[in-house]
UniProtKB/TrEMBL annotation:
UniProt-listed Pfam families: PPR (PF01535), PPR_2 (PF13041)
Organism: Camelina sativa
Protein's UniProt name: Pentatricopeptide repeat-containing protein At1g43980, mitochondrial
InterPro entries: PPR_At4g14850-like_plant (IPR046960), PPR_rpt (IPR002885), TPR-like_helical_dom_sf (IPR011990)
Keywords: Repeat
PROSITE patterns per record: PPR
PPR repeat coordinates: 81-111, 112-146, 211-245, 312-346, 412-447
Length: 637
């Protein structure tokens, strides 16, 4: 290669241009051997003592990961300048030598703003953003004027509002131009990330220039704050003002339509993607699959996935998640297997979706996926471990779920909530309460409304009246959570099961918002059991006023009027039900036979394999002590 370059330029000795091309090629290849060859050539012609070429060769070694060679070269450069130290500092941080970088930074006799910026960004990339903020404070004490790049780095490190305001104010005092898109886009994203959406909007309005990143951040701000319709309006305004959306914009818009379950606008967004020619983009296509799935158009999700014929982890995750969300566990597992045969390595999202789709007759497959999780090293991932526990709790294997709980280190709040609610659903209320007490001893986590709802339901099912009342009473003061409908419903049901109907009625009457029918149902059932017809009638009428389409209060009133021989009132209620086309809810059951799950309604007389199923149910219903089972009477085909 070197000879060809020499002949091309007609040179006997290599020129500066030759070495410039050589170094550029070596930087692109990132090859340690090529870096050493370039270094040898520079040594041969005596260029290394030159600070410029020494710095260029330092870049070569750090780019190729040859840190030891780089340090040896640094000692050979006689006249080191600030660039030499900055290149070394950046190279050490890029290669993960944080301690050496800190020592080098302390030894530097002269630091410019590039040195400080390198140290701040390096600490952030190594997972120490708080130390990056401290370096910035030291930088100010050394009276080093920050640049626009400094502020864009700092914006990505902020985790609280006060720090964000200080850095924002510092940028204004430093005279950062309002037309500097990098800085102000960074501040917008900073405020969006920490949840101060009004500040993000203020930054957007004060910007002199705006690009597609500015508009993307504004749309995300509106969406994250819960104003998803407003986010779509901002997208329309963006197009009206002549700003062309990119792939990220349209994927965000499709995701917003998915959250809104707005199929009409979602189709319009997909049509725009086709018009722009970006539907084949993995992120956009994944958002489209998710949108159709969330809008109950799973067939369209499958059609979109098959027609484009792209196989990668993102799209397979979207499709597997869609199958799982609709309860098609077998299809999710089948696609998972096909994806692995296509050499698509599953990630934590794939495994989490597959595990969430497992049902009672897929336990063998669930155990195999669990083994794969361990083999791929995802057993300590919190999301995957949460899905594993959810699968085991759902299938009644509490011991297996608790083994996952015991062996997982990084437990987040969703993980704890899954355990608490899983134990409660499997009639392990005492164990659920014990896990809740473990959570309270965890200094870094605080129970949220889901946690408190789960533990209140556990107390309700187990009859832990005192514990339930204590937790409910301390929700606001201790945990900072205002009780919602689900919390009131749980504590009222707990009191009603304990025979404390008057106390439950007092709580229901003092609810500071319009209660749902679920709150009144326990009181209604308890009053019927105790024969308090007057209270039952009052509560049933209250439920009809709040939710006139619910069949439960109608049925209770019919039963109540028939019990008290008020036939005329009973007929009126039945007539009102027919007029409003209200049908009583039918119960359904599921049973697993071999590898299939059969579901049938309460009034369904014939089901697939009905003879065998009913025979098994008859066997289960017999008293094994008092009844003598004659197996010859049953013929299973």
């Amino acid at each position: 290669m070197f000879q060809l370059l020499r002949r091309a330029h007609g040179l006997c000795m290599p020129s500066s241009f030759y070495f410039s091309r050589l170094v550029d090629r070596s930087l692109l290849s990132k090859c340690p051997t090529l870096a050493r060859v370039a270094h040898a050539q520079l040594l041969k012609v005596g260029f290394i003592p030159n600070t410029f070429w020494g710095n260029r060769c330092l870049q070569l070694y750090f780019k190729s990961g040859s840190v030891v060679d780089a340090f040896q070269l640094l000692d050979d450069i006689p006249d080191k300048n600030t660039i030499s130290w900055n290149v070394s500092l950046k190279g050490l941080l890029k290669n993960g030598y944080l301690n050496y970088a800190l020592d080098l930074f302390d030894e530097m006799h002269e630091r410019d703003v590039v040195s400080w910026n390198t140290m701040i960004s390096g600490l952030a990339s190594c997972g120490f953003p708080e130390y990056g903020m401290r370096v910035f404070l030291d930088m100010q004490s050394w009276v080093i004027r920050p640049t626009e790049f400094t502020f864009s780095i700092l914006a990505s490190l902020v985790s609280c509002v006060s720090h964000g305001e200080q850095i924002h104010g510092n940028a204004i005092c430093s005279g950062v131009s309002k037309s500097n898109l990098v800085v102000w886009n960074s501040f917008m994203d900073m405020y969006r990330r920490i949840g101060v959406f009004d500040y993000a909007l203020s930054v957007f309005l004060t910007m002199e220039d705006r690009d597609v990143i500015s508009w993307n951040c504004l749309i995300l701000c509106c969406s994250d704050s819960g104003n998803k319709e407003v986010a779509l309006d901002q997208f329309g305004l963006m197009r009206e003002m002549g700003n062309r959306p990119d792939e990220y914009t349209v994927s965000t818009v499709v995701s917003i339509c998915s959250d809104l379950r707005d199929l009409c606008k979602g189709k319009q967004a997909i049509a725009l993607c086709i018009k722009m020619g970006v539907l084949s983009n993995t992120i956009v296509l994944g958002a489209g699959i998710d949108m159709f799935s969330k809008c109950n158009r799973l067939d369209d999700s499958v059609k979109l996935f098959r027609e484009l014929g792209k196989w990668d982890s993102v799209l397979c995750n979207s499709m597997i998640g869609s199958y799982s969300w609709h309860g098609f566990g077998e299809d999710a597992l089948r696609l998972f297997i096909v994806a692995m045969r296509q050499s698509i390595r599953p990630d934590k999202f794939t495994l989490s979706s597959v595990l969430s789709s497992m049902n009672a007759v897929m336990l063998d497959h669930g155990a195999q996926v669990h083994s794969l999780v361990i083999k791929l090293g995802f057993d300590q991932d919190t999301a995957v471990a949460t899905s594993l526990m959810e699968m085991y709790f759902k299938t009644g294997l509490v011991d297996s779920a608790m083994r996952v709980f015991a062996t997982t280190d990084g437990k987040d709040l969703i993980f704890w909530n899954t355990v608490i609610m899983g134990l409660e659903r499997n009639s392990k209320a005492a164990e659920s309460l014990a896990v809740f007490n473990q959570l309270l001893m965890n200094q870094g986590l605080k129970p949220d409304r889901v946690t408190l709802m789960g533990i209140l339901v556990a107390c309700c099912y187990a009859g832990f009246v005192n514990e339930g009342i204590q937790i409910f009473s301390s929700m606001v003061k201790t945990y900072g959570v205002n009780p919602g409908n689900e919390h009131y419903a749980s504590i009222i049901e707990l009191l009603c099961r304990a025979g404390m109907i008057s106390e439950a009625k007092d709580i229901a009457d003092k609810i500071p918002f319009e209660p749902s029918s679920h709150i009144w149902e326990p009181i209604l059932c308890a009053s019927l059991d105790l024969g308090d017809t007057r209270l039952a009638e009052t509560v049933a009428k209250t439920m009809l006023e709040s939710e006139p389409k619910s069949s439960f209060p109608y049925l209770v009133l019919i039963k109540l009027y028939e019990m008290t021989w008020r036939w005329e009132n009973s007929v009126k209620i039945r007539y009102a039900m027919n007029e409003q086309k209200i049908k009583s809810a039918q119960g359904s059951s599921k049973i697993g036979i071999k590898s299939s799950v059969y579901s049938f309604e309460g009034d369904q007389l014939q089901i697939h394999g009905g003879h065998d199923t009913c025979a098994v149910l008859d066997l289960l219903s017999w008293d094994s002590v008092d009844q003598k089972i004659h197996w010859s009477a049953y013929h299973f085909h």
